[in-house]
Amino acid sequence: MRRLFIITIVFVVAAIIACTGNGKPDFAAAHAAKEYYDMLSEERFEQFVDGMNYPNPIPASYREQLVANARMYVDEQRRAHKGLSEVRVVNCVNDSAQTSANAFLMLCFADSTIEQVVVPMVKRNGHWYMK
Question: How far is CA 63 from CA 8, 37, 52, 120, 131, in A?
Fold first, then answer.
């Protein structure tokens, strides 16, 4: 219950911030975050890890750990919720310089459970990466 309340507050604050901005919001960061989570649901773990904002190259052993963590997350969600069936973009709040953003996604699971997550994003060399 407390988690739902906190998520609701985050979305209300994000909506207020988005509405006070000038012009149309830029959803590029949110769409990039959705693509990364789609990769995760498709079990493309290496590509998901490539979407993380780490210096290139990261040590191979660390990369293997990140891939293993992504695999464990998907396995856990499969056991708990029969897997991730869809990822939807809810909102995106960008900083004024358009170099970082918070992407708000809705994760829809096969057992009809829905989870809303905030994915911090950073723009590096013209591409959006997960923090």
Answer: 34, 18, 11, 20, 15
Q: What six digits make up the tokens of 125?
A: 């060399």
Residues ≥6 apart with Cβ < 8 Å to 130 = 33, 36, 51, 52, 53, 119, 120, 121
| Model pLDDT for residues 60-80, shown as the tens digit of each residue | 999 999 999 999 999 999 999
Convert the pLDDT of each residue in 75-113 to its tens digit.
Answer: 999 999 999 999 999 999 999 888 999 999 999 999 999
What per-residue confidence (pLDDT) applies to 102? 97
Residue 113 structure tokens: 């459970």
Strand partners, 109: 84
Contact assessment for residue 107 and residue 114, using Cβ atoms and an 8 Å cutoff? yes
Residue with tokens 């309340």: 5
Give the predicted TM-score (pTM) of the model: 0.78
Dihedral angle sign, alpha carbons of residues 7, 8, 9, 11: positive
- Non-local (6+) Cβ contacts of 85 within 8 A are 41, 108, 109, 110
